[in-house]
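Quick start: read one record
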Amino acid sequence: MNNLWQIIEINSSIIILVLAVIIFLLFISQVILFRRFKDVNRRYRLLTRGPSGADLEEILQNYAGDVKKLKAKEQELKREQDILKEQVAQCVHNPGLIRFNAFDNMGSDLSFSMALLDRRGDGVVLTGLYGRDETRIYAKPIRKYIRLQPGR
């Protein structure tokens, strides 16, 4: 133990110099850490305050309200889409027209049949028979691609 004290006394100036350098390095690192903490703290305040001055909780509540509004709007648009699908299904799709010669003594295909059906197969078939003296047009209702008999 005595030898240790003698070594310290002999090298005291070197030990003090080394300790002073360590203290100086610790002081420098403390200043660097303080500046980094200040920058992180500024960023944190900006994040929690938001650009308009509102805090983070208020911003999140506004976003949650906006999401609820969007969900309600989505449900409304789905209902409108279903209505439009129903209306489109009732519209005439791919009308068909066939021209033919109804009578042997006629010159060209002046008679016709036209099918006007929706996607469900409901609609009407119009048939026009052209003759020399007269032209007649007939209509037959169709349900699900089946011709309806009268009284049905």
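The first helix runs from residue 2 to 10.
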